[in-house]
């Protein structure tokens, strides 16, 4: 079973995404900020990371840049959830491979479809 890690400071967002992913057959873990995830990353990497951008303590942007610098050989894809649609809010991702943006409010159906497609699951 593929493990997807969700990071968001809103427990309702985590709960909604968790329910959709678990119903689709994924194992889900979560954290409320990037630093909590980084502490757990050294133990075991997820198969996919879904992170919000705007969070206290460590933003999603800081998290992605830290992952890229500390784990340059990471294999898991990153899905960044954001309400910022302007391209200038996404420039920092140019050199981060295997990263995709999804706009908020997030469609759990689209996120599940993306995860299934990435892992080669049939619908």
Coarse morphology: globular
- Sequence of strands across the biggest β-sheet: 2-1-3-4-5
Whole-number tally of structural domains: 1
Largest sheet: 5 strands, parallel
Q: Could you tell me how far the N terminus lies from the C terminus, measured between alpha carbons in angstroms?
A: 16 Å
CATH class, please?
Alpha Beta
Secondary-structure element string: EHEHEHEEH
Tell me the β content.
Answer: 15-25%
- Average the pLDDT over all residues and give the rounded result: 91
Query: Helical content, roughly?
Result: 25-40%
Mind telling me which CATH architecture this is? 3-Layer(aba) Sandwich
CATH topology group: Rossmann fold
Would you report the number of β strands? Answer: 5
CATH superfamily: Response regulator
Q: How many individual helices?
A: 4
Class inferred from helices and paired strands? alpha/beta
* Low-pLDDT windows of residues: none
Rg, alpha carbons: 13 Å
Can you describe this structure?
- There is one protein chain.
- The chain is an alpha/beta fold and about 120 residues long.
- It has a single domain (about 5-120), classed as Response regulator (Rossmann fold).
- Helices cover about 35% and strands about 20% of the residues.
- The protein is built from four helices and five strands; from the N terminus they run βαβαβαββα.
- It has a five-stranded parallel β-sheet.
- Helix 3 links the parallel strand 3 and strand 4 (about 80).
- Helix 1 (about 10-25) packs across helix 4.
- The longest helix is centred in the N-terminal third of the chain and has 13 residues, at about 10-25.
- It is globular.
